[in-house]
Design a protein that fits this description.
This protein is of the alpha/beta class. The chain contains 9 helices and 11 strands. The strands form 3 sheets. It has a 7-stranded parallel sheet with strand order 3-2-1-4-5-6-10, sandwiched between helices. The protein has a two-stranded parallel ribbon with strand order 7-9. It has a two-stranded parallel ribbon with strand order 8-11. Strand 4, helix 3 (about 80-100) and strand 5 (about 105-110) form a beta-alpha-beta unit.
Length: about 290
């Protein structure tokens, strides 16, 4: 372990910061990289220069990369698609090529189930389900998935892509359904949300643990894995969990908005290959989120 050095991108962000903390708690030598300075960022960089990244990786003798940086959802830079592609695709390619050139051993890409677009099936979908991105963010994730698929097992670099579902918990800066319902409850307002199917979610601590387990696994058998809690959660379930945490809330579906569909996802491969099963269900996760937000 002493000779292993892990670089984590997005170290100032929601997922990256949690990954850095988890690595440090487990006595891993860790370097946090992010365009924004923070207590978990040692290197300020925007991934725009492959040569600079190659020098950094070689100088620090980085053995593992967990790429959690970039535009984190369709609600970010939604009116600037070129910037989304520049950050999420070109920046990721710079880091990938630099990792290959610098002799990094393992490269874990934090992808998203959003790469599959809007979907819902009766049975959990597997990694080979078609990629059908429906916005610039999901297209950027699908693009990197295809690059990694083309390189997997054809280069010495050990590649892994983790398709996270929606990550929630204390510290998230952007808002999705969980945060919108919690925020409305705390403000004593009605939560107005788009019509939705039940969805899979993942609590932030579980998400970080999954990234670290995958990174150091010697028994992965595939390129891509879904990271989610296997439960199926509706907006009513979220509202009930918020109410159980002491903040009743009423939700209203805005039928003028497009229906949001996702899931379910097959999470068994992650459990089988590197021992990851989500431990925090939506009731406990939302209880923690409400307590922290208060």
């Amino acid at each position: 372990m002493a000779s292993e050095v892990t670089l984590v991108t997005g170290a100032s962000g929601f997922l990256g910061k949690a990954i850095v903390s988890h690595l440090i708690e487990n006595s891993r030598i860790t370097i946090g990289l992010d365009p924004r300075p923070s207590c978990t960022t040692q290197v300020t960089d925007d991934l725009s220069d492959c040569a600079r990244l190659r020098k950094l990786l070689a100088a620090e003798k980085v053995t593992h990369v967990i790429h959690a940086g970039g535009v984190s959802g369709p609600m970010v830079l939604s009116d600037r698609p070129l910037d989304v592609i520049r950050i999420n695709v070109l920046g990721s390619l710079n880091l990938l090529y630099a990792s290959i050139d610098a002799g990094v051993r393992t490269f874990v890409y934090c992808s998203s189930a959003a790469a599959h677009g809007n979907f819902y099936e009766d049975d959990p979908i597997g990694e080979d389900y078609p990629l059908r991105p429906n916005n610039t963010y999901s297209a950027s994730k699908a693009a990197m998935e295809m690059v990694l698929k083309g390189l997997w097992r054809k280069i010495p670099l050990d590649l892994c892509s983790l398709r996270f579902t929606v990550i929630y918990g204390p510290g998230r800066e952007t808002k999705f359904i969980v945060e919108e319902i919690v925020e409305a409850a705390l403000a004593g307002e009605i939560a107005r949300i788009p019509p939705m199917t039940d969805w899979p979610y993942i609590y932030i601590e579980d998400a970080a643990r999954a990234a670290v387990l995958a990174c150091y696994s010697q028994t992965r058998t595939r390129l891509s894995y879904f990271i989610a809690h296997p439960e199926r959660v509706t907006p009513k379930d979220i509202a009930a969990a918020v109410a159980a945490a002491g903040k009743p809330v009423r939700i209203e579906m805005d039928e003028r908005m497009p229906r949001a569909a996702r899931g379910p996802l097959d999470t068994d491969p992650a459990a089988h290959d590197f021992g990851f099963r989500a431990q925090v269900d939506h009731r406990e996760g939302i209880r923690r989120l409400v307590a922290a937000t208060r």
